[in-house]
């Protein structure tokens, strides 16, 4: 952590607004070696912030993460500005006030009369246009976005967002400041949602669409995305944690800012639940109920053990067929190897972006015998199957019994194009690819920012490479053909690289 102020691009940083975001920024700035001046209109707010931050440093010293001398040194760098005019010595001021355009414009207009013409004015806005904020200023070239995530010290990423008129040297200096504060600095263009919030659109919205189609329940979607997808939490657990009062507003804001772009279309489910006050953890009930803060998730239904029957495996995808053949042989079930199954055989299909019904009919199979298996992520941690509307109950039960023979959990879905995992993964990759296509940020920046800001197992472009760009293209194309919904149209970035067998991370 930098402490040598001579190496910093700024020496004195002012903060307006000492709530959670302002406090976090102040803590990092002081630790990096800057003098920090705190201002807040609310009486006593600055003192509360100083007490809070000093308490953090004292606890770190008690745990020997920093020395007592460091804690004292950091504390001495925090100073109160008793009025806005006291911020005059600052060479950068960061605002962390209410998320309203007029308020931020008014503050920056006032600050222009106080600080030097060379001082930088940075906004911590998460959703407003930096260009629009700067438009009210005499010197828009010195206005820039400097967007941290809560909790600031733990979320090791900051977005640097130049407006259309921001000077290049201002961008360079603020990038250097983000680095000095110990965060990954993601430079992005001034677009709705910037980078991280933009990239996060598909995870929740596609999960909500799946839920709205009654493919399965919220808990099953969450289990699939955690076990098969490798995410830290499922989309509905995340929505409950964030709160629908926050999440739905962001969904609607980005959707409308992109002039009703179908990829970002919100769900009526969240609007309805918001109206009902089912916000999530903060209200004790959302997609789940919470008792003393603990999520109440129902147990998975037990799977009955069924006597083995003959199994026939589609050869649509030879690598997937080989993996299923190993599973059948390990379970000790009889395997049919003819080109067509007998009427007694359970038929296992491996579609990509296709529903079980279409996959069965395309191969001339009897839908009553068919069960589809999602092979996108393999068969290790969870197995997802879906039936056609005609699948015989005995065959559905046999498939669940077979797939759970070794204790691996199994999720059974209603027929759907793309299961759960395929749909959500493909949409995440596609949104990430379009962010790259728009030049919002460099490919490596997109991936690292999403990994840090959203906690995904891979950034969206690396995720596409992990599963295979051609497979992602197949999923999206089949979804688009089946539904006609433009939300599934593949990004040119994805389409071209899949056709050329290129990595999605290559510019």
**What is the approximate shape?**
elongated
Largest beta sheet: strand ordering: 3-2-1-4-5-6-7-8
- The unreliable regions are none
Radius of gyration, in Å, reads 27 Å
| Category from helices, strands and their pairing | alpha/beta
Helix content: 40-55%
Please work out how many helical segments DSSP would assign: 20
Distance between the termini: 32 Å
Sheet of most strands: 8 strands, mixed
Query: What average pLDDT do the residues reach?
Result: 96
Describe this structure in words.
With about 500 residues, the protein is an alpha/beta fold. Helix content is about 45%, strand content about 15%. The protein has 20 helices and 16 strands. Strands 3-2-1-4-5-6-7-8 form an eight-stranded mixed sheet, with helices on both faces. α1 crosses α2 and α16 packs across α19. The longest helix is centred in the N-terminal third of the chain and has 18 residues. The radius of gyration is 27 Å and the shape is elongated. The two termini are about 30 Å apart.
What's this, in brief?
With 507 residues, the chain is of the alpha/beta class. The chain is built from 20 helices and 16 strands.
Defining key terms:
507 residues, alpha/beta, eight-stranded mixed sheet, six-stranded mixed sheet, elongated
């Amino acid at each position: 952590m930098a402490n040598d102020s001579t190496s910093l691009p700024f020496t004195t940083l002012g903060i307006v607004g000492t709530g959670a975001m302002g406090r976090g920024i102040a803590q990092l700035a002081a630790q990096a070696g800057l003098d920090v001046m705190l201002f807040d209109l609310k009486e006593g707010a600055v003192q509360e912030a100083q007490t809070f931050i000093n308490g953090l440093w004292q606890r770190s010293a008690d745990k020997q993460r920093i020395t007592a001398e460091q804690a004292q040194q950091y504390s001495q760098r925090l100073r109160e500005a008793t009025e806005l005019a006291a911020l005059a010595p600052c060479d950068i001021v960061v605002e962390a006030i209410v998320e309203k355009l007029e308020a931020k414009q008014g503050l920056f207009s006032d600050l222009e009369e106080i600080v030097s013409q060379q001082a930088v004015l940075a906004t911590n806005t998460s959703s407003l246009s930096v260009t629009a904020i700067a438009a009210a200023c005499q010197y828009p070239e010195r206005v820039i976005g400097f967007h941290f995530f809560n909790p600031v010290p733990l979320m090791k990423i900051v977005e640097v967002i130049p407006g259309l008129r921001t000077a290049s040297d201002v961008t360079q200096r603020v990038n250097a400041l983000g680095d000095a504060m110990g965060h990954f600095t993601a430079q992005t263009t001034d677009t709705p949602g910037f980078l991280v919030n933009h990239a996060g659109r598909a995870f929740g919205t596609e999960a909500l669409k799946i839920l709205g189609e009654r493919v399965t329940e919220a808990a099953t979607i969450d289990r699939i995305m955690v076990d098969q997808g490798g995410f830290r939490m499922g989309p509905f657990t995340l929505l409950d944690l964030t709160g629908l009062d926050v999440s739905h507003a962001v969904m609607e804001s980005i959707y409308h800012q992109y002039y009703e772009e179908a990829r970002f279309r919100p769900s009526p489910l969240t609007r309805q639940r918001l109206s009902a006050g089912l916000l999530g953890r903060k209200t004790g009930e959302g997609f789940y109920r919470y008792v003393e803060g603990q999520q109440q998730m129902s147990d998975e239904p037990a799977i009955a053990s069924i006597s083995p029957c003959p199994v026939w495996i589609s050869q649509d995808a030879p690598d997937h067929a080989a993996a299923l053949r190993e599973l059948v042989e390990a379970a000790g079930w009889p395997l049919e190897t003819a080109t067509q199954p007998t009427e007694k055989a359970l038929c296992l299909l491996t579609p990509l972006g296709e529903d079980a019904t279409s996959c069965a009919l395309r191969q001339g199979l009897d839908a009553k015998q068919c069960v589809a298996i999602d092979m996108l992520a393999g068969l290790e941690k969870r197995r997802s199957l879906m039936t056609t509307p005609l699948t015989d109950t005995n065959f559905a039960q046999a498939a669940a019994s077979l797939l759970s023979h070794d204790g691996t959990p199994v999720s059974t879905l209603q027929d759907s194009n793309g299961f759960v995992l395929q749909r959500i993964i493909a949409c995440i990759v596609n949104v990430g690819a379009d962010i790259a296509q728009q030049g919002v940020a460099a490919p490596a920046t997109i991936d690292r920012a999403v990994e840090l800001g959203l906690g995904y197992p891979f950034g969206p472009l690396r995720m596409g490479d992990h599963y295979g760009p051609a497979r992602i293209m197949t999923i999206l194309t089949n979804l688009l053909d089946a539904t006609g919904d433009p939300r599934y149209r593949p990004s040119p970035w994805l389409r071209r690289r899949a056709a050329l067998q290129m990595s999605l991370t290559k510019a």
